[in-house]
Structures are given as structure tokens and as C-alpha cells.
Design a protein that fits this description.
CATH class: Mainly Beta
CATH superfamily: mth639 domain like
Number of domains: 1
Structural class: mainly beta
Distance between the termini: 23 Å
CATH topology: Jelly Rolls
CATH architecture: Sandwich
Strand order of the largest sheet: 1-8-4-5
Helix content: under 10%
Shape: globular
Oligomer: single chain
């Protein structure tokens, strides 16, 4: 299993109301239209992920886990990798409930989007001083006992 950790920060406009995606961005500013963004000023982008992990992410049906932690509040998003992932985006990492892929896609078929995260976590992320720790873990296959919506 590979692991990659980065940080991002809150912003007053974090609403996390998007129903199919969740995004971390390196941008410092966030407009109210960015309803999938849960963290700004990310310390890493997709191109920073080590090549070994990218290779694992590009295995069809590899299991991808993204754990977001703010203080004691923690959530896990589970999804899949794909042989079609480009993993080349330099400005954002996007988690998708669908199987749509672009250069900014980290994983597909996720069990959560921005609107599925706890409101407690989102309220914390509306403060620009709040730091979120994001941990990406990848294993080779999606096990049968970790089915998701």
C-alpha cells in the first residue's frame, strides 16, 4: 500500500454542496461557485504524487482511500483508480462519484462527494486558519467487503 500526505486550508467560501465531486485546490482564492472545493492552498498537486503511487492509481479497480482530518474530525472517502487516469493536473485534485476522467481526476466511483462530508468538518473549513491533513492511500485491488454507493 502506498501513502501520500499533503495539507490544505480553509476559506470563508467553502460550502461543499456539490453532489458528485470533491476538490482540493492549490489556488488561494475561492468563489461561491466553487461548491465542490473543500480546501485551498493545497501543498501538493497531482504531479507531486510519486510515480509508484501513480502506477498503482492507474490499475483498474485499485482501491483508493482519501482520509481528511481537521483537528479530531476525520472522514474517509473510498473510490477506485483507473488505467485511464492522467494524474497530471497542477492546480487541483478531484474525487468523483462518477467515472468521468480529466487531467485533474484523482479517483473515480467514490462513495462521497463534497455534500456528503459532515457539516462539522465543513464549518471548520470555512475558517481560513483551519488546516486539513489529507492522506491518500492506494492498494492494488478493491476488496469485495468495501463496496460503496
Amino acid at each position: 500500500m502506498s501513502e501520500f500526505v499533503f495539507r490544505c486550508f480553509g476559506h470563508k467560501n467553502v460550502s461543499a454542496s456539490h453532489k458528485s465531486t470533491l476538490e482540493f485546490t492549490v489556488d488561494e482564492n475561492l468563489t461561491v461557485k466553487g461548491d465542490c472545493i473543500v480546501g485551498v492552498k493545497a501543498t501538493s498537486n497531482l504531479s507531486d504524487i510519486p510515480e509508484l503511487m501513480k502506477k498503482q492509481l492507474r490499475k483498474t479497480r485499485s482501491k483508493v482511500s482519501v482520509v481528511v482530518k481537521v483537528n479530531e474530525t476525520c472522514e474517509e472517502i473510498i473510490g477506485e483508480g483507473s488505467s485511464n487516469l492522467k494524474l497530471s493536473g497542477k492546480d487541483a485534485m478531484i474525487i468523483r462519484k462518477s467515472d468521468y476522467i480529466c487531467s485533474r481526476t484523482l479517483m473515480i466511483n467514490a462513495n462521497k462527494a463534497a455534500n456528503n462530508l459532515s457539516r462539522q468538518l465543513i464549518e471548520l473549513m470555512q475558517n481560513p486558519e483551519t488546516e486539513m491533513i489529507v492522506t491518500i492511500q492506494v492498494s492494488d485491488t478493491l476488496s469485495e467487503n468495501s463496496k460503496h454507493a
